């Protein structure tokens, strides 16, 4: 197994904001996938609760995730535009276990 850093984020979107958040998340995903340390950035909508979005991010290392969180696109799209449209947000972080 190769080493990597996995992030799983759960977003509960405010009523009436789902389409806006989905559009912003699409832009954030596109920009994030271009980062040198990003291995994958995907997001999904819950069938039973459309306001629940799950984001799966994978990076080469925790340092690359930190760089992602400091990027202009994360600050503009994520912090300034997406997060204020959420009811709640839970972020889980995992690293590969030692071999």
Concise account of the structure shown:
Helices cover 34% and strands 35% of the residues. With 99 residues, it is of the alpha+beta class.
SSE blueprint:
Blueprint: E1 5-13, H1 18-32, E2 38-45, E3 52-59, H2 62-69, H3 72-82, E4 86-95
Antiparallel strand pairs: 1-3, 1-4, 2-3
Helix pairs in contact: 1-3
Report what the structure shows:
Strand 2 and strand 3 form a beta hairpin. The radius of gyration is 14 Å and the shape is globular. The N and C termini lie close together (8 Å). The longest helix has 15 residues, at 18-32. It has a four-stranded antiparallel β-sheet with strand order 2-3-1-4. 34% of the residues lie in helices and 35% in strands. The chain has one domain (5-95): 2-Layer Sandwich (Alpha-Beta Plaits), CATH 3.30.70.100. By secondary structure, the chain is an alpha+beta fold. The chain contains three helices and four strands, in the order E-H-E-E-H-H-E.
Which properties best describe this structure?
Alpha-Beta Plaits; single chain; 99 residues
